[in-house]
């Protein structure tokens, strides 16, 4: 009886665990037994691995083979274990030196002819291997650029099982990552200067970008709601390297990484259609849940156009991620956590018929109420800025009436973000929107009387405690944009107007 070990990585959300694969080849009826909570795709590996080994010019052991994946209580899913399983079997059979597998993580799916196919989630797998102390990792050749985003590891790429076996025998070489070019230039986004008029909406977008606040636009068709929302990403600061790695890890799991393998520093912009399913929006699927749009928008913008067309249950499913910055999905194989610190931007028509001019509306009042009630009170409470847009009445602009372009507004946004970063540097929070209300009042109390307007509304029951905290966060952002040290009563008044302007207009209909 012979025993050998190889290693791979088991993913659980964006986190990974080192999986030890023990291969035992001993007497008994020929066959392969796979234990350790494999899913259906992994259970089928016995057929893929056997055919790949034979078609790579190696003999398959004609004895009883037992493969155990540890930790045994960790559910294993996917086909990324194939290469490690094949090498473990051949090492246990004496066809590969067992010592050559020490300190090596093997990733990849095997085709029947021995080709190594790419798999999803290579980037978080490499990160998990490095965290576990393993610095030599073999990945599919097509995933080499993606894996090379991780530093301080020795990466090797293989296109065929025969190449891996020759390398383990010391008779061959595997591919190395290509030399990574200079960091990519920030892409050119649609310019905010192209938006005609809509000063309130433009200012709300600037405040939202400066503080990371959630935003709702309500207005007639053609008033510029979607135009402004799509230009919001151009105002946001570039992602730091750790933030970009978080975004890339989620995209890797979803199979949405760009083919060039570059680390994207631009915040993501995700705009699902209103017919999206709950699983596609917040994540889901059988077994262990997959990331959804809220996680793909992590550190970026989640844009819901025609938000009143979304089902109420879909919108309410966003409430917890908006508060906590992550989504927890429970399935039969366990609970996974995906990051979901997105900035929610919503756009909607004021009524179902949506005429170009509000005065031409033919909807009954109860129809308008039902339409708007799809966005529940708790969701509106979590929306920091609510702005009503007016119809565009002219597209002619004189030479002195040109709107500010993205570069000009972005400079103010970055300056405000830097003030907030310095203020919260010792706490780990990156923007005003991330600061919990109790901490905001305790660590940075405002001058007496500044929040009098908010306090009166709270006592009258016209403002919730959550809404008060959100107004205070927006007031800090308004203060940062004007370069002040602490919010004054005018900043608080501006924040309150932006919080309720859209909702109040809708209530008057």
Short description:
The protein has 509 residues and is an alpha/beta fold. The protein is 36% helix and 17% strand. The protein has two domains: 167 residues, 2-Layer Sandwich (Ribosomal Protein S5, domain 2), CATH 3.30.230.10; 228 residues, Rossmann fold.
Topology:
Elements: E1 2-12, E2 15-26, E3 31-35, H1 40-43, H2 45-54, E4 64-70, H3 82-92, E5 104-106, E6 109-110, E7 116-117, H4 122-131, E8 136-140, H5 144-147, E9 154-158, H6 161-168, H7 199-211, E10 215-218, H8 225-230, H9 241-254, E11 269-270, H10 278-282, H11 293-296, E12 301-304, H12 312-316, H13 319-324, E13 326-331, E14 334-339, E15 343-348, H14 365-372, H15 377-381, E16 385-388, H16 406-423, H17 437-443, H18 452-459, H19 465-482, H20 489-508
Parallel strand pairs: 3-4, 5-8, 8-9, 10-15, 10-16, 11-12, 12-15
Antiparallel strand pairs: 1-2, 2-4, 6-7, 13-14
Helix pairs in contact: 2-3, 7-16, 7-19, 16-19, 19-20
